[in-house]
Amino acid sequence: MKTLIIVRHGQTTADLDGTHEGRQDNHLTNLGVSQVECLTKRLKTHYSIDFMYSSPMIRTKETIDIINKVYNNNIVFDDLLMEWDNGLLAGLKRSEALIKYPPPNEYTIHTKLYETESTFEFRKRVDKFVEKLFNTHQLDNSNVLVVTHGGTINMILSSVFKDEISLEKKYKTGDTGIHVLEWIDNVVVYKEKNSLMHLKKD
Predict the structure, then answer these.
(1) What are phi and psi of 48, to 5 degrees?
(2) Maximum distance among all alpha carbons in the chain?
(3) Which of 56, 64, 102, 140 is the most buried (most CB within 10 A)?
(4) How many C-beta atoms surround the C-beta of residue 61 within 10 A?
(5) pTM higher than 0.90 for the full model?
């Protein structure tokens, strides 16, 4: 693998509703579709893409389907790329969730509340995807696109850079944000970090 391009899906209906998304399956909004179209133009201009991977959730599927109208590649949908499993919080209004499922006084990477996935479990799940990705593409000189979720992107980058498992969300990503990693002489170079320049108006 020569280049790994990681992007987040566009705006969803949950962004407008003020609900916890996570494992709730939502569609892109009209703005979200427009964001992805702008993203696609930028990708087409700057990157060839040989392989595509995506979370199977509706919002990521809609995102990669728009992108793939340009590239016409096979897409691998992988459950390991799904967003953090937020259990009983999924789909709840944030104000309602605070009352019904209040956050604990203490929170660690092993905390599991309200049928959620712990931070430790989330990272280990994403580690499996990263390991599989590297094993699959270690001998080719390919450009790989991954379309997924904000929390999952944070875990992918944490895994690639071998960061300690932490509650900190170190790598933040806006709607359709782009992260680009390039391997030069077996050294990873972080070329783009949450780039949103495709959304800027001329």
Answers:
(1) -85, 150
(2) 52
(3) 64
(4) 19
(5) yes
Share of the chain above pLDDT 70, in %: 100
Nearest one of 84, 93, 80, 91 to 112, comparing CA atoms = 84
pLDDT at position 156? 99
Nearby residues of 45 by Cβ (< 8 Å), 6 or more positions away? none
b or e along 109-143 (b: 16 or more beta carbons within 10 Å of the residue's beta carbon)? Answer: eeeeebebbbbeebbebbbebbeebeeebeeeeeb
Domains of the chain and any CATH numbers: 3-199 (3.40.50.1240)
Residue-wise pLDDT for 161-182, tens only, equals 999 999 999 999 999 999 999 9
Q: How many helices (H) and strands (E) does the chain have?
A: 6, 6
Average of pLDDT values for 12-40?
94
Tell me the C-alpha to C-alpha distance, in Å, between residue 44 and each of 4, 12, 19, 133.
15, 23, 33, 23
- Backbone phi, then psi, for 30, in 5-degree steps? -60, -40
Side-chain half-sphere exposure of 88, counting CA atoms within 13 A: 12
Element (H, E) at 30: helix 30-46
